[in-house]
Design brief:
The chain is mostly beta strands. Helix content is 13%, strand content 44%. The relative contact order is 0.30.
């Protein structure tokens, strides 16, 4: 199974503390977000792996994918297309999720990421109030 190594927990959507904190992190980014899509907190176990896949369909075509590393030790390798990167704790990355991508957690601890999808009118321009 593609996501057999990902632990996920469904939280109450409206007023859970995790939702409030996630939105605070997202709102602090220098992005002009037109619409927020899925927001997930995921944990990939130490030694875990997510098989190569590409996201498809209308949803993937209309939303950009972002990762904020909440906890990611050295040894977490993210492969997208022909590129590889280690997303460090505290960093936020955009990647083209329509390209084939995979993740290996070769560290000794779980990798925790806040993953969110958004329609952005422009990158690196914080929304004006």
């Amino acid at each position: 199974d593609l996501f057999n190594e990902i632990e996920s927990i469904d939280y109450a959507p409206a007023d859970s503390a995790i939702r409030i904190e996630a939105l605070r992190l997202i709102e602090g980014l220098p992005l002009r977000i037109a619409e927020l899509g899925r927001v997930m907190v995921v944990s990939l176990k130490a030694g875990g792996y997510i098989d190569a896949h590409a996201d498809e369909g209308d949803y993937a075509a209309n939303f950009s994918r972002f990762h904020i590393a909440i906890h990611a030790e050295k040894g977490n390798v993210f492969h997208v297309g022909q590129e590889s990167a280690h997303i460090r704790t505290g960093e936020c990355w955009w990647f083209n999720h329509r390209l084939e991508h995979e993740v290996a957690n070769l560290s000794g601890s779980d990798r925790i990421h806040l993953i969110f999808d958004a329609r952005v009118s422009s990158l690196y321009q914080k929304k004006e109030s």
